[in-house]
Amino acid sequence: MDDLLAMQACNLLCLLENYQMKYYFYHILSWPQLIYVVEDYNGRIVGYVLSKMKDESNECYGHVTSFFVLRTHRMRGLATKLMSAAQAAMEQQSHLRNFLMEVKVLLEPMSMMAINFDIKQGLYP
Asked: Looking at domain 2-120, what is its CATH homologous superfamily?
Protein backbone atom coordinates (compact mmCIF):
# COMPACT_ATOMS: atom_id res chain seq x y z
CA MET A 1 0.00 0.00 0.00
CA ASP A 2 2.86 2.39 0.81
CA ASP A 3 4.35 1.79 -2.65
CA LEU A 4 1.05 2.67 -4.32
CA LEU A 5 0.82 5.91 -2.34
CA ALA A 6 4.42 6.77 -3.26
CA MET A 7 3.74 5.99 -6.94
CA GLN A 8 0.69 8.25 -6.87
CA ALA A 9 2.73 11.00 -5.20
CA CYS A 10 5.33 10.77 -8.01
CA ASN A 11 2.54 10.88 -10.57
CA LEU A 12 0.94 13.95 -9.02
CA LEU A 13 4.30 15.70 -8.71
CA CYS A 14 4.70 16.56 -12.37
CA LEU A 15 2.99 14.20 -14.81
CA LEU A 16 0.33 15.60 -17.09
CA GLU A 17 -2.09 12.69 -16.69
CA ASN A 18 -3.01 11.77 -13.11
CA TYR A 19 -4.85 8.72 -11.78
CA GLN A 20 -7.04 8.03 -8.78
CA MET A 21 -5.93 5.39 -6.29
CA LYS A 22 -8.54 2.91 -7.58
CA TYR A 23 -6.71 2.83 -10.92
CA TYR A 24 -3.48 1.77 -9.20
CA PHE A 25 -5.43 -0.94 -7.34
CA TYR A 26 -6.90 -2.13 -10.65
CA HIS A 27 -3.40 -2.45 -12.13
CA ILE A 28 -1.83 -4.20 -9.16
CA LEU A 29 -4.70 -6.68 -8.95
CA SER A 30 -4.80 -7.34 -12.71
CA TRP A 31 -1.11 -7.19 -13.71
CA PRO A 32 1.09 -7.30 -10.58
CA GLN A 33 3.99 -8.72 -12.62
CA LEU A 34 4.02 -5.62 -14.87
CA ILE A 35 4.64 -2.95 -12.24
CA TYR A 36 8.19 -1.91 -11.39
CA VAL A 37 9.58 0.73 -9.05
CA VAL A 38 13.05 2.08 -8.38
CA GLU A 39 14.01 3.31 -4.92
CA ASP A 40 16.79 5.53 -3.65
CA TYR A 41 19.11 4.50 -0.81
CA ASN A 42 16.52 5.60 1.75
CA GLY A 43 13.81 3.37 0.29
CA ARG A 44 11.90 6.28 -1.26
CA ILE A 45 10.34 5.55 -4.66
CA VAL A 46 11.97 7.79 -7.26
CA GLY A 47 10.56 6.16 -10.38
CA TYR A 48 8.08 3.60 -11.62
CA VAL A 49 6.53 2.01 -14.68
CA LEU A 50 2.90 0.90 -14.65
CA SER A 51 2.07 -1.49 -17.51
CA LYS A 52 -0.70 -3.80 -18.62
CA MET A 53 -1.53 -6.33 -21.32
CA LYS A 54 -4.38 -5.98 -23.77
CA ASP A 55 -5.94 -8.82 -25.74
CA GLU A 56 -7.94 -7.70 -28.73
CA SER A 57 -9.08 -10.26 -31.30
CA ASN A 58 -6.00 -12.37 -32.06
CA GLU A 59 -3.48 -9.72 -31.13
CA CYS A 60 -1.88 -9.40 -27.72
CA TYR A 61 -0.03 -6.23 -26.88
CA GLY A 62 1.56 -4.45 -23.98
CA HIS A 63 0.62 -0.95 -22.91
CA VAL A 64 2.70 1.37 -20.73
CA THR A 65 0.10 3.27 -18.69
CA SER A 66 2.39 5.51 -16.66
CA PHE A 67 6.17 5.92 -16.53
CA PHE A 68 8.14 8.33 -14.40
CA VAL A 69 11.54 9.09 -12.87
CA LEU A 70 12.02 12.06 -10.53
CA ARG A 71 14.07 14.89 -12.03
CA THR A 72 16.69 14.49 -9.30
CA HIS A 73 17.35 10.91 -10.44
CA ARG A 74 17.32 11.29 -14.22
CA MET A 75 20.32 10.69 -16.50
CA ARG A 76 21.38 7.65 -14.46
CA GLY A 77 19.90 4.92 -16.66
CA LEU A 78 16.94 4.30 -14.34
CA ALA A 79 14.32 4.99 -17.02
CA THR A 80 16.02 2.56 -19.39
CA LYS A 81 16.15 -0.14 -16.70
CA LEU A 82 12.48 0.37 -15.80
CA MET A 83 11.34 0.26 -19.42
CA SER A 84 13.54 -2.78 -20.18
CA ALA A 85 12.12 -4.66 -17.18
CA ALA A 86 8.54 -3.83 -18.19
CA GLN A 87 9.15 -4.81 -21.80
CA ALA A 88 10.75 -8.13 -20.82
CA ALA A 89 7.83 -8.91 -18.48
CA MET A 90 5.31 -8.05 -21.20
CA GLU A 91 7.11 -10.27 -23.70
CA GLN A 92 7.09 -13.13 -21.21
CA GLN A 93 3.44 -12.50 -20.33
CA SER A 94 2.29 -12.48 -23.95
CA HIS A 95 3.66 -15.98 -24.69
CA LEU A 96 4.25 -14.76 -28.23
CA ARG A 97 7.45 -14.07 -30.10
CA ASN A 98 6.14 -10.86 -31.62
CA PHE A 99 3.95 -8.34 -29.93
CA LEU A 100 3.16 -4.68 -30.14
CA MET A 101 4.00 -2.32 -27.30
CA GLU A 102 1.85 0.79 -27.16
CA VAL A 103 3.07 3.91 -25.38
CA LYS A 104 1.05 7.11 -25.16
CA VAL A 105 3.55 9.91 -24.86
CA LEU A 106 2.60 13.00 -22.87
CA LEU A 107 5.67 15.18 -22.57
CA GLU A 108 6.47 18.28 -20.67
CA PRO A 109 6.85 21.18 -23.12
CA MET A 110 10.30 21.22 -24.74
CA SER A 111 11.42 18.01 -23.06
CA MET A 112 14.25 16.95 -25.37
CA MET A 113 15.53 14.40 -22.82
CA ALA A 114 12.20 12.58 -22.95
CA ILE A 115 12.06 12.71 -26.74
CA ASN A 116 15.61 11.37 -27.06
CA PHE A 117 14.82 8.58 -24.57
CA ASP A 118 11.74 7.59 -26.58
CA ILE A 119 13.76 7.55 -29.80
CA LYS A 120 16.43 5.32 -28.20
CA GLN A 121 13.68 2.94 -27.00
CA GLY A 122 12.35 2.72 -30.57
CA LEU A 123 9.05 4.42 -29.73
CA TYR A 124 9.31 6.82 -32.67
CA PRO A 125 9.78 5.73 -36.29
From this structure: Gcn5-related N-acetyltransferase (GNAT) (3.40.630.30)
